[in-house]
Amino acid sequence: xPTFHYKAYSANGTSxxxxxxAESERQAVSQLKGRGLLPREVLEEGVAAGSSPSFxxxxxxxxxxxxxxxxxxxTLMSSSVPLFEAMGSLHEQxxxxxLKQVLARVRERISExxxxxxxxxxxxxxxxxxxxxxVAAGEAGGALDVVLERLADxxxxxxxxxxxxxxxxxxxxxxxxxxxxxxIFLLTMVIPxxxxxxxxxxxxxxxxxxxxxxxxxLLRGWWWIPTGMAIAxxxxxxxxxxxxxLRLKRDALLLRLPLAGGMLQRLIxxxxxxxxxxxxxxxxxxxxxxxxxxxxxxxxxxxxxLRGVMExxxxxxxxxxxxxxxxxxxxxxxxxxxxxxKGGTLEAMLLKAGAAYERExxxxxxxxxxxxxxxxxxxxxxxxxxxxxxxLLPIFEMNExxx
Length: 403
Prior knowledge:
mainly alpha, Ubiquitin-like (UB roll), Receptor-associated Protein, 3 domains, 16 helices, 3 strands
């Protein structure tokens, strides 16, 4: 009989894992449900675990679509519309696509008597573990509409941050692509036709012109080498990043980058504070909330440290004291967490800290883009100027010889 490894939630929201024997994956899920567990992941022994979806609020469905769905569902729940009727209405309103298919399955589970969180858990590629946990906490506390409103607010804020970063990067990326394209065109199409004049003259050429000619010959004759290296680097990088040790080194290096490292840290701190505060305010136990938050953070350095924090808090330690032991969490955040723990307002303090770090990230991003744009224009002008000088210098020298 096949053996399946499973991860599931108990009735009180605790995460469990183990092994179960069943004829099929469907039967394994049924057995787990019979034990009162909510299956999160069921994999047959021998199947790579890496193929399972990672934790996040959104994956195959865009954040904008998911936030809109969440907002509509919250509106219907606050209007006392029955859950099955609300899901049916949202399913009919949704345009054909991935989300419509998922909502059809969710409505079917609800019609079978399943709770909303359990129905969402059957679509982990759309509703991440954090999303499901918050919905489950809202159901248990009788405040599902409030939790859904908070979820919608969070998703909309995350989409706004993503759009802000994307908009800020469009111009620099466009400048790099245009500048690179212009340089390649000059070196491969224009320069070879011009340097023929210099080569025929057999005169001594300036070092800058010689270097430019050699670079042009390299690109024209051996263009396949850099192209092949660029193409091969993508699968090699992905394969290398499958190793946890290398991913940890990469994430640590990203945090040490000048300018970008500080911005990345602010973005991570904002996400940490917002997600943890949102989970706690929705009624998720702190240990479970820390576990989910650590998985939501993409940086392995923060993930690794938060695992130690979870153990200390589980043993009765203070969250602020645990965070203070690492320079990953600045004094401002630690102080706000400490004040929240003492005053019983930890959730509010975390959300306030998250908003503050998000504003700081946006401010740094605006300053960096304001500095980067003229620097890119200057770099492009300098590169084109070097090419022009390499062409004009021998012309000037030839004119001097003629005189």
